[in-house]
Amino acid sequence: RSQQRYDDLRAKLRREELSSAEHKELLELVDVVEQASVERLQHLMVLSQLRQVSLDELLQQLDIHPPAVND
Questions:
Q1: Band of residue 70 on the pLDDT scale cut at 50, 70, 90
Q2: Which of 7, 17, 67 lies closest to 37, judged by CA?
Q3: Is 0.85 surpassed by the pTM of this model?
Q4: What are phi and psi of 70, to 5 degrees?
Q5: Who contacts 65 (Cβ-Cβ below 8 Å, separation ≥6)?
Q6: Euclidean distance between CA atoms 65 and 5, whole angstroms
Q7: What is the signed CA dihedral for 41, 43, 44, 47, rounded to 10 degrees?
Q8: How far is residue 36's CA from residue 34's CA, in Å, rounded to a whole number?
Q9: How far apart are CA 17 and CA 11, in angstroms?
Q10: Residue range 35-46: mean pLDDT, rounded
Q11: Cβ partners under 8 Å of residue 58, min gap 6
């Protein structure tokens, strides 16, 4: 649900159709996404230490690829 809303707001931003309330909502969603990414990375780092492998090796083992960068 949040991902769909985020995608919708990003699309409106690109079309320059975002209201100030929607802009505020988008900024809040960006904060949520960034915090989730930080926590995910922290958990992956702990797991790599437990497995005694580098983070890169763990990502390969789990077939995890970095997300695409969106502008």
A1: low
A2: 67
A3: no
A4: -105, 140
A5: 59
A6: 24
A7: 160
A8: 5
A9: 9
A10: 95
A11: 44, 47, 48, 51, 64
What is the secondary structure of 8-66 as a DSSP string?
Answer: HHHHHHHTT---HHHHHHHHHHHHHHHHHHHHHHHHHHHHHHHHTS-HHHHHHHTT--P
Six-digit token string for 46: 């702990």
Instruction: Please name which of 48, 67, 50, 70 lies closest in space to residue 59, comparing C-alpha atoms.
Output: 48
The pair of structure tokens assigned to 18 is 């975002």
Contact between 55 and 44 (Cβ < 8 Å): yes
Please, what sign has the CA dihedral across residues 23, 68, 58, 55?
Answer: negative
For helices 2-14 and 20-51, angle between their N-to-C axes, nearest 10 degrees: 130
Instruction: Give CA–CA dist 44/68, Å, rounded.
Output: 18
